[in-house]
Amino acid sequence: MNVGCDIVMISRVKDALAHTPGFPNFLSEHERTQFEALKGQRQAEWLAGRFAAKEAIVKAMHGVRELHICDIEIRSDDSGAPVCTLPGIRLSIAHEREYAVAFALYIG
Fold it and tell me: In the annotation, is 59 catalytic?
């Protein structure tokens, strides 16, 4: 069992969206569709959460499997909770004011 954690400042994501051509470049086609359906602050919050989650998953998989954040897809279950499409990964994303945080658990 491995654990990964990451935290992202939402304002940094908002700045990157405004000033970095091609950003975000780490979303799957399905994730991009979800992202584009959101507007304003919610778009930056959602993206910060997804980025934190993907980084947490990479950390949880350290020593098990080498991953890049582009290899990871996060969907939502019927209740809206985040679900990683990779087997054996459990995931939680939270937002609090200016931060998004994610924890990933790999159960081998």
Answer: yes
Per annotation, catalytic residue among 30, 59, 62, 68: 59
Q: Which of 25, 34, 23, 26 is nearest to 75 (CA)?
A: 34
**Residue at token pair 């359906």:** 37
Q: Which residue has the tokens 């979800």?
A: 34
To which residue do tokens 């998953």 refer? Answer: 57
Question: Which is catalytic among the residues 14, 30, 68, 95?
Answer: 95
Residues 30, 106, 62, 95, CA torsion sign: positive
**Per-residue tens of pLDDT for the chain, all 108 residues:** 999 999 999 999 999 999 999 899 999 999 999 999 999 999 999 999 999 999 999 999 998 989 999 999 999 999 999 999 999 999 999 999 999 999 999 998
Q: What is the pTM of this model?
A: 0.94
Whole-number Å distance between alpha carbons of 40 and 16: 13
Amino acid making up residue 74: I
Q: Round to whole Å and give the CA distance between 71 and 66.
A: 10
